[in-house]
């Protein structure tokens, strides 16, 4: 018999209505819908980052003030619900007025994501 996924991960979504998603590179949980992408030209901590309207299957860490390229922001790291890996951060507040549009958005590290198209064939 095929093995069954542990119940610990039963809340984690691996498919999202057949829509294209970004998934965790480590455990393949859906992290965001590609529809929710705002911009690909952001910098994450380890490389490029994606600015997203929303994210799923993540939990948020503690708020902290962090100096970023565009000034000090109040952010919270976000972690994959499936494996606990850090996948990016959430912008609570931006100090610079020109950066306010990021508030309430997610920055996801491109390195931590796999682009997943629902119609892709396995193998
Ligand atoms: Zn994961």
Task: Provide keyphrases for this structure.
mainly beta; binds zinc ion; globular; single chain; Metal Binding Protein, Guanine Nucleotide Exchange Factor, Chain A
**Strand arrangement in the largest pleated sheet:** 3-4-8-7-6-5
CATH secondary-structure class: Mainly Beta
What count of structural domains? 1
Q: Give the N-to-C terminal Cα separation.
A: 22 Å
Task: Outline the biggest β-sheet.
Answer: 6 strands, antiparallel
- The SSE order reads EEEEEEEEE
Give the CATH superfamily: Peptide methionine sulfoxide reductase
**Which molecules other than protein and nucleic acid are bound?**
zinc ion
Organism: Artomyces pyxidatus
Protein name: Yippee-domain-containing protein
Task: Please give a quick description of this structure.
This protein is 0% helix and 47% strand. The chain contains no helices and nine strands. The chain binds zinc ion.
Write the layout of secondary structure elements.
Blueprint (H helix, E strand, L loop, with lengths): L20 E4 L5 E4 L3 E7 L4 E5 L5 E11 L2 E10 L5 E9 L11 E4 L3 E4 L7
Antiparallel strand pairs: 1-2, 1-9, 3-4, 4-8, 5-6, 6-7, 7-8
The structure holds zinc ion (ZN).
Protein name: Yippee-domain-containing protein
């Amino acid at each position: 018999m095929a093995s069954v996924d542990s119940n610990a991960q039963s809340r984690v979504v691996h498919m999202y209505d057949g829509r294209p998603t970004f998934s965790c590179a480590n455990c393949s949980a859906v992290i965001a819908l590609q529809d929710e992408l705002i911009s690909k030209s952001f910098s994450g901590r380890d490389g490029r980052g994606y600015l997203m309207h929303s994210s799923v299957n993540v939990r948020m860490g503690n708020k902290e003030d962090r100096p970023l390229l565009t000034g000090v922001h109040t952010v919270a790291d976000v972690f994959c619900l499936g494996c606990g890996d850090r996948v990016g951060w959430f912008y609570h507040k931006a100090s610079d007025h020109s950066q306010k549009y990021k508030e309430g958005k997610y920055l996801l590290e491109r390195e931590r994501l796999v682009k997943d198209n629902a119609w892709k064939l396995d193998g």
